[in-house]
Amino acid sequence: MERLQKVMAHCGVASRRKSEELIQAGRVTVNGKKVTELGVKVNPSDKIEVDGVPIYQEQPVYYLFYKPKNVISAVSDDKDRPVVNDYFTRVPERIFPVGRLDYDTSGLLLMTNDGEFANLLTHPKHEIDKVYVAKVKGIATKEALKPLRNGIRIEGRKTAPARFKVLSTDHRKGTSVVELIIHEGRNHQVKNMLSVVGFPVMKLKREKVGTLDLIGLNPGDYRELTKKEVSQLYVLANKE
Question: Span of the secretion signal (predicted)?
Answer without folding.
Answer: none
